[in-house]
Amino acid sequence: MTKIFRERKSSGMRLRFIHKRKALVTFLLLLMAAGALLAQTSPHGRVVYLSYEDAKPILEAEAEILPQELKGRSPSELALDWPKWVARHDAEIRARLAQGDEDTLVNFLLFGMSYTRQPRITQKQIQQIGQQQNGAVAANNPALANLASSLQSRADDLIRAMAAPGNNDRLLFARRLLVEQKGFRLDTTEGREKAKAYLIASVVRVLGEFNNYARILEAARVEGASEEFIQRSSLFRTRGLSSDTSLLPNYALEEALKAIQSRGLLTAGSVRRVAIIGPGLDFTDKQEGYDFYPQQSIQPFAIIDSLARLGLARADAMRVTTFDLSPRVNDHLQRARQRAQRGQAYVLQLPYDTQAQWKTDAVHYWERFGDRIGSPLAPIATPSGVTALKVRAVRVRPAIASMITPMDLNIVLQRLDAPQSERFDLIIATNILVYYDTFEQSLAMANIERMLRPGGFLLSNNALLELPFSRLHSVDYSTVVYSDRPGDGDHIVWYQRAAD
Fold this sequence. Notes:
By secondary structure, this protein is of the alpha/beta class. It is built from 15 helices and 13 strands.
């Protein structure tokens, strides 16, 4: 499979376009992006945009798949227009956060437990809904009719809860999206009906998108597992940027680190500086996430935990930087860091649905998670009537939480500019690069390359195009299966940076 990664050709790849935004919105986003950029400095470097000189080899190698506004331009024209294109595209990428927030709201509607007594919608039920034409439910199918009724009731319950959200972070988020951004009035019957229609339409849209993704993957699967993985690696390139996250990809990362260590490619105590691209926020994930506990970010703590368990790093001697576009994610981690510096612990709630058919090793990972960074804590109570759910809780030591530094950074177009002594030993990017097309992924690879020390690793669950002039190439990959559910697992590819 590694050989296939290297042999991917740009000539057969389809050009993807990002929808144009209204001029005023784009202008405002440009100002916001510029303001965020100016503010992003740290003792170890500053955030800078990818220069034309750094991008030039990629522009030449991928001339056939460039965005339309960059195609057919001479080098001098590209050099002149590059800063403007980068700033504009940065704003366009950031604008995709709004669509991602709408997708998060759909997850909240389908899987939330805190605002309703209706059962969570299952993956099997989602597939059944999606198979209906335009989301309509067949009148002669009682099970689907009941499911549609449950979805309607969920929408009613969510709207009722949003009208009086209290201090519930998730409900406040949903209210801001529907009331402040979408303009729905929840204090009138007409406004509530319009909000409900919007929620149901959003569910239909998301299910339609996932049905389309399933068809794309099925067609690729016919050509082989490698082609399916390649297709999966940029599957969400036109989708909104979502920050939802879950536990199990971190199990796959620990297994990859273990395999890399066994090969002698990383040695004891060799990892000191780590970057995590898109650390995510557990809002209401469709498989492992729930909403009856406070929002939390899992991956930064999981990576510290795994590196300490394997002896690749000392838990008290690591420096972890997170890169994310989402103000919600960055603000959450910044507040956690500030509380930790005042001596407050960070609490992680770890749910495990015993009906999810996790593999034995995945269950063992869940059982030991956090033993190197904290101590067990009595978990939050599960909602009444939920019998198949087990929950662990870990109290993460303040010293661990305080070592995490969040930064606003668009990995496609920006990087942390730092001296070689401050470059990262390890960069993690799972379920992130899948949101970008091949050209954008190549730009991201150039930024990642510049942030890694020679010999450092990027771990990603994406097959990324490896251009001949790049110093970042795949060494191997590892595969982890999470459960008996079809397709439930990850390939983690090990990309290593060569010396200059």
